[in-house]
Amino acid sequence: MNSQYLVDLDQHIREWLHTLDETIPQLIAQMHTSTKKDRFDLVTNVDQTIQEQFETFLAQHYPEHQLFAEEKSNDNVDARHGHTWMMDPIDGTMNLVKQQEDYCVILAYFVDGEPMLSYIYDYPHRHLYHAMKGQGAFKDGKTLKSPEVLPLQDAILSFGAQFVDNETLRDLFEASFSHRIIGSCGLDSIRVITGQFGAHFNTNPKPWDIAAQFLFAQELGLKMTSLTGDILDFTKAGPFIISNPGCHEAVLEVLQRNGGYEKR
Ligand code: IPD
Ligand code: CA
Ligand code: CA
After folding, report:
1. Could you give the 3-state DSSP secondary structure of residue 126?
2. Given strand 66-69, what is the order of strands in its sheet?
3. If you ran DSSP here, which 8-state letter would residue 145 be given?
4. pLDDT at 41 (0 to 100)
5. Mean pLDDT over residues 117-128, rounded?
């Protein structure tokens, strides 16, 4: 891939993301919420409109690019081939609805299955994290350093405690420094990317929840695997961890010791 193409595309995507600074407050002013699978699975006009606007942007400027996103059917998308955008228009919808804070927009661009560009836009705090293949990772345009190596005993771990059985939960608390959860897979992952958390794991994320993290992990020397330490398929996702290299193996060892988590 021509590197100028990537640089121009990155610029264009960042400009598009900043159009959301005007759109999101307007959408929130008339926010309406509905449920999907169950009463905890929420979607709002904010999620839907952001995704529609990105779909329109792609159709106008990059008609050969395809979109794989949460609020649409992806049955006809062959994500492993050609130009593919993975999108979670709002990650942390429950936080948007209940707290109006701690949610983000996730975008990741793959070419023939290889991650090339990634974006996690923390709109409530106006911080844009992005990564470009071979060029590193950035917060608001400033280079992010690889986090210092963090052993598990010094690490804050982030995960949904309701999906971990009592014995494993106790082992995780004992082995680590402490536990925190933001409730947005993208933003919990950002804390690992910036070195604030040691690891974040999710027992059942979808492809759009973890798509952007591949390139951040690659560029910063973090570990990103399944919960059994295997390579993740970006088109399928499933149980995942993004981790500081200093505690990845130790977290997986605790998780496997008593087999204690649910895949949901
Ligand atoms: C959810 C959030 C949450 C995670 C769930 C995701 P959504 O995404 O990232 O932190 O625990 O697995 O589904 O539904 O707000 O896009
Ligand atoms: Ca999500
Ligand atoms: Ca979402």
Report:
1. coil
2. 66-69, 83-91, 104-111, 114-122, 127-132, 136-139, 142-143
3. P
4. 87
5. 98
Q: How far apart are CA 92 and CA 31, in angstroms?
A: 15
At 58, the amino acid letter reads L
**Residue type at position 235:** T
Question: Cα of 88 to ligand 1 centre, how many Å?
Answer: 10
244 lines ligand 1 (CB under 6 A): no
Ligand 1 centroid, distance to 103 Cα (angstroms) = 10
Over residues 40-61, the pLDDT tens digits come to 888 999 999 999 999 999 999 9
Measured in residues, the chain has a length of 264
- Check if the beta carbon of residue 130 is closer than 8 Å to that of residue 138: yes
Q: For residue range 66-82, what is the model confidence (pLDDT) as tens digits? A: 999 999 999 999 999 99
- Beta-strand ranges (E) seen in the chain are 33-35, 42-44, 66-69, 83-91, 104-111, 114-122, 127-132, 136-139, 142-143, 156-158, 178-179, 199-202, 223-226, 240-243
End-to-end, the C-alpha distance of the chain in Å comes to 38
Q: Record the pTM.
A: 0.97
**Is there a contact between 159 and 202 (Cβ–Cβ < 8 Å)?**
yes
Rounded to an integer, what distance in angstroms lies between the CA atom of residue 90 and that of residue 258?
34
> Is any ligand 1 atom within 6 A of the Cβ of residue 207?
no
Structure-block tokens of residue 197: 């958390």
Q: Residue 258: what pLDDT? A: 77
CA distance 159 to 167: 15
Q: Which ligand is nearest to the CA of 41?
A: 1
